[in-house]
Structures are given as structure tokens and as C-alpha cells.
Amino acid sequence: MFVVDKKLEHAENPSQAQQQLSFEDLLHSFILDCKAKNLLPLTLRFYQDSAKQMKEAFWAQQVPFNIYTVSIREIKNHFIAYLFDQGRSDNTVNGRIKAIKQFFKYLFEEGWLTENIANDLHVVKAKKLMIQTFTKKQVVSIFEQPDKKTFTGYRDFTMMMVLLETGMRISELCNLKTGDIFLKSWRFESRRVKVGGHVEFRSNKPAGKSFANTWTYEAA
Q1: What per-residue confidence (pLDDT) applies to 183?
Q2: Number of other CB atoms surrounding residue 74 within 10 Å
Q3: Which of 216, 214, 217, 187 lies closest to 202, judged by CA?
Q4: Count of CB atoms within 10 A of residue 12's CB?
Q5: Which is it for the CA torsion 65, 68, 74, 80, positive or negative?
Q6: How confident is the model at residue 76 (pLDDT cuts 50, 70, 90)?
Q7: Domains and CATH numbers, the chain
Q8: Tens of pLDDT along 21-37?
Q9: How are beta strands 181-182 and 187-193 bridged, if at all?
Q10: Cβ-proximal residues to 38 (8 Å cutoff; 6+ apart), any chain
């Protein structure tokens, strides 16, 4: 009820709401809204950290920061440019931009801001990098690292085999449940997650015969 009551006060007296609801309160309200949408904990932390980094960037440059009056130009000059000055990559900066866009969009939709500055906040041009794949020799070398005579070594070897055989992401592997593994058909059902944090679709990932032998050996 705290957020709702404050919102009503804002509708009646915007200047009073600006004095009573702090940046931290607004951010907390935003995160609660994201939780209600069932976004992933990792996404929630990223959104929260990005908003805090924006405020801290202004402070680090001794520039006043007011969430109610900050402009696009100020964000570009004192947050985005600041991130580049700190050596952040194009993709890292774009991730932060996307996060604060969601924050400002929420503030506008909830009536805390009179203008949705997120509409004029765009990602920067990023370099398209070619991802280098491992050679067969490198893959063999990687799989020779775990000590399969130990429990943890064979566990790590099995996890690496799952990634190789199915092509799933590390986050998908970490979120696997026993109910997602179908031993008879040797396939895995994993969740694909968008950058925004919500589930996009569930995908079936078959495993090869070599993995079936590995899993059977481990189970034994």
C-alpha cells in the first residue's frame, strides 16, 4: 500500500511527491513490479545495479542527480560517456542502457515522470565481433582437464558433456531439474530466457549416444 498511497499523493501534488519519494524508494518499487512479472533474480539484480550505477556515475563526477528532472543529454554525458571512459565495452554499455530504459519506462507509466525519456534513449553502435570456435584438439584438451576418478571431476566432465551434446546455455544447465531429463529418449527440456528475463519458450535438446554412455556410467 506504500507505493499506491504515494502514487495517489503524486497525482494530487507532484511537488510534494518529489520531496517524499526518494530515488531508492522508486527503485524499490520498480524491482517489486519486476518481481511481480516473474523476472529472473539475475535480471532483477542487473536492473537494480544499472540504476544504482547511473546515480553513482553522476556522484563520481560531482554532478547533481535528480531522478525527476534528469535529461537525456545528462544521461548521455554523465552516465553513458562515463561508462566508456571507465573502459566498458559496447555490449556492456548497451546492457546498462536497456536496463535504465525499463526503469524510466516504469516511472512514466506509473505517473512519477511526466515524460518518457526512455523513448529517446537508444543503444550505441556496437562492433560485430566474430566468435572464434574451439578446434577439435582444443575440445579434447578441455575434456581431459577433469579428473574422472573423483566425484567432482566426473561431475564436471558430465556437465561439460551436456553442454557439448545439447548446445544449451550455462544458465539453462544450472536451472535443469530432474523432471527436465528424459532418460528413455535421452533428451533435455530446458527454458530459453530472453534478455528481459521472461521465459520465451521451452526447448527440447537431444543428447547423443556418447553422452548416454557417460550418464549411465555416472549413475552406476
Answers
A1: 59
A2: 16
A3: 187
A4: 8
A5: positive
A6: very high
A7: 2-120 (1.10.150), 136-219 (1.10.443.10)
A8: 899 999 999 999 999 99
A9: antiparallel
A10: 198
